Amino acid sequence: MDLITKQIQQLELKLLQSDLIAHPGLIDELLAESFEEIDSNGEIRTRDDVVGWLLHKDKYIQWIFKDFRIKALTNDVVLAIYSLHKPDQPGTDYTGSTRTSIWQRQKNQWKMVFHQASRKS
């Protein structure tokens, strides 16, 4: 795994696994102002929608990334592609999802500008 791939994977993990109520500055550090998402139901979500979810998510779930890779779109824009799974939890039927994120380098800092989740059947 090359340096940029590791860096983007760490940023994805930081966004998903950090307690953003305790560290609210991470939101602006990681999400671009123009950020938007297409959720696993195909609904378009605004930055505010996603921030609301991130602030209220279960901060104790340690998500598992599989097959993480990136594709460079330009020198300052990359596409991250990976599968996301919850650890095995009794009583849940979550099978995971395929995720894509677009990250853009803005003022020497990578920020997520777009994210899409596709539920696995």
Describe the structure.
This protein is an alpha+beta fold and about 120 residues long. The chain has one domain: Roll (Nuclear Transport Factor 2, Chain: A), CATH 3.10.450. It has three helices and six strands; from the N terminus they run ααββαββββ. A six-stranded mixed sheet has the order 2-1-6-5-4-3. The mean pLDDT is about 90.
Task: Please describe the topology of this protein.
Blueprint: H1 3-17, H2 25-30, E1 31-38, E2 44-46, H3 47-56, E3 64-74, E4 77-85, E5 97-106, E6 109-119
Q: What is the total number of structural domains?
A: 1
Strand order of the largest sheet: 2-1-6-5-4-3
Query: Could you say what the CATH architecture is?
Result: Roll
Helix/strand order, N-terminal first? HHEEHEEEE
Helicity range: 25-40%
CATH class: Alpha Beta
Shape annotation: globular
Average pLDDT over all residues: 89
Distance between the termini: 28 Å
Major sheet description: 6 strands, mixed
Number of continuous helical runs:
3
Tell me briefly what this model is:
This protein is α+β, with helices and mostly antiparallel strands and 121 residues long.
Keywords, separated by commas or semicolons:
121 residues, alpha+beta, six-stranded mixed beta sheet, single chain, 3 helices, globular, 6 strands, Nuclear Transport Factor 2, Chain: A
